[in-house]
Amino acid sequence: MLLRILIIASLLVVSGDLLAKSPGVKTVPISGTLSGYVFPFNVDPDDIADRCSPPEDQCAWGIASFIGWGDISHLGESEFYAEHCSYGKLAEDVCVPDGTYGDGEITTIADNGDVLKGTYDNGVSTPPPDPIFEDVVTFIDGGTGRFTFASGGGVEIGTVDFSQMPPTFSVYMEAEIAYKRK
């Protein structure tokens, strides 16, 4: 009798776990290193006002944009475009950069053409000349192919080399992603 109860309880636990997962959804760890170029900062006040929503105690002083390439597990050789708002603190009516950033948007194109969309926030960077940065990335709906309804996220950490013209960067991303199987 005890054996029957244990078997039934085990089946209920296993079936509950199976039902909790959406059919056809695959969750995998992904990681990769990407490198590329930093575009000149956009400091146009109208563009900043339209694009950026800084935290209450901060101001936005510029929009940073990047383009890069690299190999990402489960995506293959990929290319991406990213853009975020750079923040600071207001001092005598001037927004003084403080190394924080957010309102980030990233679009990654996998080797088969599927598009993965994401956002990133809570960014922190050390001051030049050799800044190191870190932020939190979240995958969102709106991609294409297997990433149409993607979700998940992780962290990015990287460096920027402002001694190069144009400046270059390298970033390592480690995350988990859920997406529909093809």
Counting DSSP E segments of at least 2 residues, the number of strands comes to: 8
Helix content percent band: 10-25%
Q: What's the SSE pattern?
A: HEHEEEEEEE
* Assembly form of the protein: single chain
The description of the largest β-sheet is: 8 strands, antiparallel, barrel
* Proportion of strand residues: over 45%
The global form is globular
Keywords:
mainly beta; eight-stranded antiparallel beta barrel; 8 strands; 57% strand; globular
Written account of the structure:
An 8-stranded antiparallel beta barrel has the order 1-2-3-4-5-6-7-8. Residues about 1-20 have low confidence and may be disordered. It has helices at about 1-20, 45-50, and strands spanning about 25-40, 60-70, 75-90, 95-110, 115-125, 130-140, 150-160, 170-180. With about 180 residues, the protein is mainly beta.
Short description:
The protein contains two helices and eight strands.
Topology of this protein?
Layout: H1 2-20, E1 25-38, H2 45-51, E2 59-72, E3 76-91, E4 94-109, E5 115-125, E6 132-140, E7 151-161, E8 168-180
Antiparallel strand pairs: 1-2, 1-8, 2-3, 3-4, 4-5, 5-6, 6-7, 7-8
